[in-house]
Amino acid sequence: MILLLLLNVAIIVVLSAVIENSPSLNDAIWDTKESLRNNFQTNFFRSGRNLIIPLFLIADVAVLYWRLIRRYRQMQLRHIISELHYIAEGNYDHRIPFELRGDLSRVVTSINGLVDSTVAAIEDERRIEQSKDELITNVSHDIRTPLTSIIGYLGLIEDGQYQTDEEILKYTHTAYVKAKQMKSLVEDLFEYTKVRQPTVPINMISFDMVQLIEQLAADFELEADKKGIEIEVVTKEKQLLMDGDTEKLVRVFNNLFTNAFKYGKGATKLVIQLEKVGTEAVIVVKNNGAEIPKYALDSLFDRFYRVEESRNQATGGTGLGLAITQGIVALHGGYIYAKSNPDWTSFIIHLPLTRNPKPKELAKVDETKEI
Predict the structure, then answer these.
(1) Contact status, residue 139 vs residue 318, Cβ threshold 8 Å
(2) Under 8 Å between Cβ of 353 and 281
(3) Residue 315 — very low, low, confident or very high, per pLDDT cuts 50/70/90?
(4) Exposed (0-12), middle (13-18) or buried (19+): which is 214, by Cβ within 10 Å?
(5) What gap in Å lies between CA 364 and CA 362, rounded to an integer?
(6) What are the two backbone dihedrals, phi and then psi, of residue 282, each rounded to the nearest 5 degrees?
(7) How far is residue 9's CA from residue 88's CA, in Å, rounded to a whole number?
(8) Taking residues 306-331, what's their average pLDDT?
(9) Whole-angstrom Cα distance, residue 246 to residue 226?
(10) Which residues contact 172 (CB under 8 A, 6 or more apart)?
């Protein structure tokens, strides 16, 4: 305020000196005042102070207002910076609480959004790391168990700790079975890795889903008879043409049928229902075996998850079958989920009848047309 008053005094002194030393400027100012006096019929403009002082007051108020607004925004900016430092110290659950206007409001909104996305990225990274750790643990366990048996039985043969040829055959047979378990795990891991990649190539062809289901039911009929299970295909459709990779879809139904035989304790029926709903094919694979607990339904499609948690190779597979199934269905643009009650355990698959081409494929088609 004092500086502003001093600046006003200095400007007045300088203007007075300039006017006194310039007769032409003095005459011009006098003519202007006379003109104003004659036009407005008042002597108010005869005195220069009456004209200059209001102008200086208006200028001073404008400068003060500008300075106060600037100081206020600087204070807001300092608060924002201090809040940022607080968040940067690891307090990621904190958000800048100020409600501002203008550009600072957009800055605060952007900062809070950036913190939210950073926290989400950190949580995703933690989940990925946890998932990797679980993957390593599960694979290590599932490989170590059969590998220990293989080494043990082959070690007995190597050390000559056998009495008859029948014992050698028993040892080698056990080692062979365990080696097949390891091979199955490696193949499932390879397949799981492939179907989880969105860029994995799929051989899409047009086929009849009704015919495919009936053929698969016939292929599994012998195994079902051994388990005392009756396979039944239920559909009103005589033909249901759709696009898909039949090799991969066969893997889907193989996994579901095998799971029904292996885990559907007490089941006597395996029913495959097929219907067309709008632009989708809805396939239900259900059995009347033991109910799956509700707590397990949401985790059924997680890799290495087993309802039977002991991870015993005698009662469970690799724990990758349903994860692979979900991945294949997703590659076709569909989805799968499970329901279970005391009467039926059902796996419901929704598949689009026609596949929407990817942008890269559309680009290739456009290039072909241009050629």
Answers:
(1) no
(2) yes
(3) very low
(4) middle
(5) 5
(6) -110, 115
(7) 49
(8) 70
(9) 27
(10) 153, 157
**Separation CA 202–CA 194 (nearest Å):** 11
Q: CA nearest 337: which of 282, 289, 288, 272?
A: 282
| Strands (DSSP E) found in 188-263 | 205-208, 230-235, 241-244
Sequence-distant (≥ 6) Cβ neighbours of residue 77 within 8 angstroms? 104
Place of tokens 């365990």: 178
Calpha distance 204→183 (Å, rounded): 28
What count of residues does the chain have?
371
Contact 241, 206 (CB under 8 A): yes
Q: Please list, in sequence order, all residues whose beta carbon lies within 8 angstroms of the beta carbon of residue 43, skipping any fewer than 6 positions away.
A: 37
pLDDT for position 344 = 92
**Tokens 């043990």 found at:** 152
Burial (CB count within 10 angstroms: exposed 0-12, middle 13-18, buried 19+), residue 235: middle
Q: Which two tokens stand for residue 332?
A: 């076709």
CA distances from 97 to 26, 105, 242 (A): 59, 11, 54
